[in-house]
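Reopening this one. Same input as before:
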Amino acid sequence: MELIFLGTSSGVPTKTRNVYSFAFKYINSKSWYMVDCGEGTQHQLLKTNLSLNNLSAVFITHVHGDHLYGLPGLLASATMYGREEPLKIIGPNAVKEYIESTKELTQTRFSYEIEFINIDEKNKLEVNDFNVDIVELSHRVSSFGFCFTEKDITQKLDVKKLEKNGIPKGPLWGKIQSGEDIFVDGKQLKSCDYLLKRREPRKVIVAGDNDNPLLLKKHINSLDVLVHEATYTNDIAEDKGEIPQHCSAKKIASFSKENSIPNLILTHFSPRYQEKDKGNGLKIDDIKEEGLMNYNGNLILANDFDRFILNAKGEVVKT
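Same output, byte for byte:
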C-alpha cells in the first residue's frame, strides 16, 4: 500500500505545507482513495500521478475548512477532466449539505453521479478494497476517524511444492488457489497442502482532529499504522485549557507506546511550528523530539508529498 501526504498543515497553509489531505492506494493500482480535502488540494494533486478520473472515494473526517474547502473545486475539476464514473463521498451529513448548496449557488453541474454516505449514524461500511470502521472522535464539531482493513487477501501458492509434485501449471493451480481440492491421476489433493500461510490483512487508521486518543482504543488490535494529528507540543496544548480540541505529540505518542502501535505517522501541524525558529521559540523538531521521548516505535513526521510504502510485513518505508 502507498500512503501519500498531500497536505500536512492545520488551520492555514504555510510556504512548505498545504492544509490537510491524505491519499492512499495499492501499489501499481490506478484506483485511489482520499481522506479530507483542504483548500488547494487539487493543486497538490498536479504534482503527483494521481488522477481525478481514478479517484474511488473521498472520506471527510469533519466539516472544518482546512479539511473540506478544497472539495467543491476538486469535484468541479473532475467534470472538466471528463469524469463519468460515480464517486462516493463519505462523511457527516453536513458535507452533503455543503456540496449541494455550493452547487446550487454557483450553478455548477457535475458530469458524474455523487453517492453520499452519511456516517453520522454508521459504524461500518465497505469500499472496493477495504472494510472501514468509523470511529467517533473528540473535537469542537463532530469528527471521525476511519479504520481501513484490507479485504480479500489471496493466499499464495506454494509453487516449489506444486512443481516438485509435478502438478501442471494452469487451471489446476487456479482451483487450488481458490481453495478447491483437485484430483490428479485419480488421487485427491487437498488445496490446503499447497497454500502458504495467509498473511494478516493490513490495517491503517486515519484520524480526524481529535483531542482524546483513547477513543481509538477498541480499533487498534493488529493495527499496522496510525496516522494522527499532532497539532501542538504538550505545553501549547495545555495552554488551551480543559478542551484543547487538538492532540499534542506527547499525548498521541504515549497512547501509541502504551498500546504497542508499531508505526505512528504524525501530521496536521500548527503553522506556528516552522522548519526553523521564526522568533517564537518553536520549530517542527520540537514536535519530533516530544514524540520520540514518549514513543519507542517507528515515528514519522509527514511532509507534503511524502510517500510511504506499507509492505506485507507491516513495515513502513519512505520512497
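So the earlier flakiness isn't reproducible anymore. For the record, The first strand starts at residue 2 and ends at 7.
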